[in-house]
Design brief:
heterodimer; A: mainly alpha; 75% helix; B: alpha/beta; 7-stranded mixed β-sheet; 40% helix; globular
Chain lengths: 120, 227
């Protein structure tokens, strides 16, 4: 099978391979659970296949939706999934910021300077 | 014995904080003990050291958390020491200590739980972009809270001990000014408005990032809808 990779496909592949190597490294350093490692590896491998063999998108579309449906439904579903991920990230950062503020405030109150104390 | 805590959130205010602390009154009518409390919000200059040398109580945040967090830290510190009245003022010396007595008078006479300072009687001295920004935010505060406060963004305010206990404040940044207005209504607190002077000199001409106003409006809407 001959592979004709355009420059755009090459750039996309390079980014995905980088992300894949990061996922593998995180798993080896025990920063990633097995479930999340499997999940992300599936995503990256599927992306590599779709990038190298774009015609597989039509095979997948025909299988999932039937030959008379457009690919818009799949794109819409993917967009919803991405929005959900962004929302999860937003919630996590809000929670981390709130915890950081609480701890920093506790620390400041614990070490309050009153006149007569040792100057910092 | 009536205790007045003066809470001063400060971020990189080394040029102004010493002079401000020295200018605070040593005696106030109706008050027995005055405690200045500076909240250094993660400054990277000598704000903490200057405040300590000026005999203020000083809480130092390890990182910059925002004026809302600094104000809440000040409220907690004041409540821990049983302050009867708490006044907040900006650390850049924009607010005149000579207005302190008239700011706390409604609380001492039990006519109000919260007193809002109003700078709009002294509009000549305020930079133009701040006038516009403050007007817009005051309008937004009215739209989101239903409270008609002439100057919703003035940090020079006085609170009774009871008011601070009843308010549930969560905003980390400048939006706390509007949040306090909303909490005044939610907690059914009585309030008064008092004209205060503003001092704008070279130090105060450092301008706020206009994008802060967008963030404040967003936070006010978020608070209205989901809190």
């Amino acid at each position: 099978m001959e592979l004709n990779i355009s420059p755009l496909q090459g750039i996309g592949l390079a980014i995905v391979v980088l992300a894949l190597t990061k996922t593998v490294a995180d798993y080896h350093r025990k920063r990633e659970s097995r479930v999340m490692f499997t999940f992300w590896m599936s995503i990256w491998i599927a992306t590599i296949i779709l990038t190298l063999f774009p015609e597989t998108t039509f095979i997948a579309k025909n299988y999932l939706l039937g030959p008379n449906q457009s690919i818009g439904s799949i794109i819409g579903t993917v967009m919803i999934f991405l929005l959900f991920l962004v929302y999860r990230i937003y919630l996590k950062t809000e929670r981390v910021e709130r915890l950081l503020r609480e701890h920093a405030t506790e620390l400041a109150l614990k070490n309050i300077y009153t006149p007569g104390s040792k100057l910092s | 014995m009536k205790t007045l805590a003066i809470v001063i959130p400060a971020y990189n205010e080394a040029p102004a904080i010493g002079a401000l602390l020295r200018s605070l009154p040593k005696k106030v009518t109706g008050i027995d003990i005055i405690i200045p409390i500076v909240i250094d919000d993660g400054s990277n200059d000598a704000t903490t050291q200057i405040a300590q040398k000026s005999n203020a109580w000083v809480c130092t945040h390890p990182i910059n958390l925002g004026v809302g967090c600094a104000t809440r830290t000040g409220f907690t510190a004041a409540n821990k020491h049983n302050a009867d009245i708490i006044v907040t003022m900006d650390g850049d010396g924009q607010h005149s200590p000579s207005d302190l007595e008239k700011l706390i008078e409604p609380i001492l006479t039990k006519k109000a739980d919260i007193v809002f300072g109003n700078r709009f009687t002294q509009l000549r001295t305020m930079p133009f972009q701040r006038k516009i920004g403050n007007r817009i935010l005051t309008l937004m505060t009215w739209l989101t809270t239903g409270m008609r406060i002439s100057d919703s963004q003035c940090g020079y305010r006085a609170y009774s001990h009871n008011a601070v206990k009843k308010m549930h404040l969560i905003q980390p940044g400048f939006e706390i000014c509007s949040e306090i207005v909303g909490e005044t209504k939610r907690a059914h607190l009585s309030y008064a408005q008092v004209p205060v002077k503003t001092i704008y000199d070279i130090h105060h001409k450092k301008s706020q990032n206009p994008l802060n106003a967008i963030n404040i409006i967003f936070r006010m809407i978020e608070r209205l809808l989901w809190n």
